[in-house]
Structure formats: C-alpha cells, structure tokens
Write a structure and sequence with these properties.
about 180 residues, mainly alpha, about 0% strand, globular, binds zinc ion, transmembrane helix
C-alpha cells in the first residue's frame, strides 16, 4: 500500500478506535453518561490516538530508504519492540497500533507480502486479496480493511476484554502475578 493508503487507514482507525474506547463495555446497552460527556470522551480519545497511530502507520516504509523494503521494518520483532517500548520507557503509547495496521494493510491489501519473521527468514507472507497499490481499487480495499479491523476490535473490546486494560490489570486477570 502507498503512503496515502496508510495515512487514510491510520486516521480512520484512530477515529473508530477512539469511539470504541469511549464506550465502556461493562456498562451494558444503557449508557449513563450524557451524550455531551460521551462525545467529549470520544473526541479526547480520538485526539490522543490520532498522531501516534498515523506516525506508526507511516513508520515501516522508512525501510524504503534504510534497509530492505518490506523486510527490515515489516516484521514481528519490530512490532514487539513498539509494543514493549511504552512499558519500558513510558512513551510512544499507541504507536504499535499504527505499525500493526500497516502490516495488515500490506498483507491483505497489496500484491506483495511482508517478511513477518525477518531477519530469521526473508520469506514474504501475503494474502491473495491484494490489489496493485496504484490501482483504482486501492482506496476501496483500504476502507474495507479498516472497517473489518474496527469490527474485530469492537467485538474484542465489548465481548472479550477491554482494549484499554492496563498491562498490570491484564497480568493480574491472567493470574500471572
Ligand atoms: Zn509497507
């Protein structure tokens, strides 16, 4: 996918995820907050997510200039670094969301795959759903991928576990500590 696709995907994902996070999955279908309070909460969440997610969505393609494209910064070890970074250093929260969605869009939405296990393996993984990044289908595919991502995230947030569960809370729930 090209830069335009990744920015569109990151921006729409931040908006959708911000709205999803503003709705408390434990509060049931009847929301006690006033519409104005809910809108303020959603707007704050969207703002909080917007820049980190868009920056994350742009980051992997830095390997067009430094390293091997679709390999050096398009792999799970790089994603793991972005997931761990906030816990270790206390900054760059949410950037991993943008990096993760960049991978999804490259795997699902474009013809060439990415080397998920680089540097262990240079094999590029792809799904047959991809279209050429220059084709007229690039934008529709970007929208569909974003919509599916948001549907999955909402289902997880409402039915499995709240996505804003902190690492400590999640570890406690799993009985790790
Ligand atoms: Zn890419």
């Amino acid at each position: 996918m090209n830069k335009e696709g990744h920015v569109t995907n990151g921006a729409l994902l931040a908006v959708g995820l911000g709205v999803i996070l503003a709705v408390d999955p434990t509060s049931g279908p009847l929301v006690e907050e006033t519409p104005a309070a809910l809108a303020l909460e959603a707007g704050t969440r969207v703002a909080e997510l917007s820049l980190p997610v868009i920056l994350g969505a742009l980051f992997p393609d830095v390997d067009t200039a430094f390293g091997k494209h679709r390999k050096t910064l398009h792999n799970l070890p790089v994603l793991a670094v972005f997931v761990a970074f906030p816990y270790v250093f206390g900054n760059l929260q949410f950037v991993w969301v943008g990096v993760a969605t960049h991978y999804v869009l490259d795997v699902v939405g474009s013809k060439r795959g990415i080397a998920l296990f680089y540097p262990l393996s240079s094999q590029e993984y792809d799904l047959p759903t991809g279209v050429a990044t220059s084709s007229k289908w690039a934008n529709p595919v970007t929208f569909v991928v974003t919509a599916v991502e948001l549907a999955v995230l909402a289902a997880v947030h409402y039915y499995v576990f709240a996505l804003d569960t902190s690492f400590a809370e999640a570890a406690a729930l799993l009985g790790l500590f």
